[in-house]
Amino acid sequence: MGGQELTDIVDFHELIGESQWFGDDAKPQKTYIREVSLLAGYGTWDDIEKFDSKAMLKCQASRIGRCNEKSASLPPTCFVELLPLPNRTTNHWIYPGARKSFFKSLAPGRAGAFQQLISRYHPQAVVFLSTDRI
Q1: Of 14, 21, 92, 8, which Cα lies nearest the Cα of 60?
Q2: Residue 57's domain spans which residues?
Q3: DSSP tag of 28
Q4: What is the pLDDT of residues 114-127, one digit of tens each?
Q5: Three-state SS letters, 82-130
Q6: Is 28 a domain residue?
Q7: CB 102 within 8 Å of CB 83
Q8: Tens of pLDDT along 46-88?
Q9: Number of structural domains, the chain?
Q10: What is the rounded radius of gyration, in angstroms, for the C-alpha atoms of the chain?
């Protein structure tokens, strides 16, 4: 998206034609709902008294991953992919070459970039999600 370091999650999804996860008619997206649940448990959104599935979907649809300019009254959240190539599942690799080779060549540089972002923005918390590593 024009060489920006970080992009608003809604803008990005609209650009790739995947707007179903955001807005008034949003559908639950299992990865984002997990992250919303984590943020709610962390106490990020004090204005939500009853955090049920409807409230979680509302947060997914309008609050997570938004650039500060677009949601100045909300605590900022940022989602960054370690491996920036989308796949439907972690068990299926659709790109040329072996996944392990790709990870091995890309991960060190991405980790360094994450360290720089963390140093620059001083987030209150950094959480890494994985299906096979804790």
Answers
A1: 21
A2: 9-121
A3: -
A4: 899 889 888 877 87
A5: CCCCCCCCCCCCCCCCCHHHHHHHHHHHHHHHHHHHHHHHCCCCCCCCC
A6: yes
A7: yes
A8: 656 667 788 888 888 888 887 755 555 556 677 777 776 766 6
A9: 1
A10: 16
